[in-house]
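Hi support team,

I submitted a single chain yesterday and got back a structure, but I'm not sure I'm reading the token output correctly. Could someone confirm the output below corresponds to the sequence I sent? I've pasted both exactly as they appear in my results page.

Thanks,
R.
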Amino acid sequence: MTRGTTESARTDPQLTAKLLTEVLPYIQRWRDKVVVIKFGGNAMIDDALAATFASDMVLLRQVGILPVVVHGGGPQIGDMLRRLGKESVFEDGLRVTDAETLDIARMVLVGKVNREIVGAINMHGPLAVGLSGQDAGIITAKARDSRLGFVGDVSAVNSTMIERMLAEGLIPVISTIGADAAGQAYNINADTVAGAIASSLGAEKIIYLTDVAGLLADVDNADTLISRITSEALRASLDEGELVGGMIPKITAAVEAVEHGVSSAHLLDGRVPHVMLIELFTDSGIGTLITKEPYTGSDGVES
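Hi R., thanks for writing in. Yes, this is the structure output for that exact sequence:
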């Protein structure tokens, strides 16, 4: 779709009709399919992008797709910590979390960010319901590393509550606080939680909204976007230490989701308005597509 096409469609009924007929096969293909979306980064803190995201979620649900939103809140947690005079320390892209930081993270994620996302979606349609990973035992957690404090990993996902909400036509919005068997809460990386939930639900897709165009061969060069790659190739990159910082948990989660039954993972630039619609409803797509097997187009030819 070329630049200016959307503006032309507003005044050309024939073009509008043509666009709708082109989208129809994609709507039919993804109808009744679960799509897990990890929402974070600039897409969350930019008011205009957040509003666009909210309307897109309602649109997906209205055309029969089953979205599940898993959100982070790193910038908001960092901002609150600064206000309270606490310094953020990171190890391998994960925030070191002492007991006080955990309380702040839980307050921000569950009490503020989750409520804001739910409210934004419900302005476009009363469909969103907020959940914490602690609710109904959705996320059972375990400590990741003593150096990280109360940072957890997902040891199990109970998707029953999520499935009930989807069956009722609702959009679950999940914050990433989980708890272990003793009730101890942990803050879990949202990328990790999104991947685990997608695997548990047998999702068709998991979509990560990022602050870059996708996976870059050269992190300093936006022109080196990798549009398609297999989970095997990415696993090799992880094992060889070729990925660094905040991309590590995102890629790890995407690879594990694809290796555990999710059909595809997508790394998209959340700074682009309607980026999910472009990825889901156009041939060319946008960002990076991750699949277990080499991607084949509709003609069956390996790409």
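A quick pointer for reading it: The two ends are 21 Å apart (CA to CA). Let us know if anything else looks off.

Best,
Support desk
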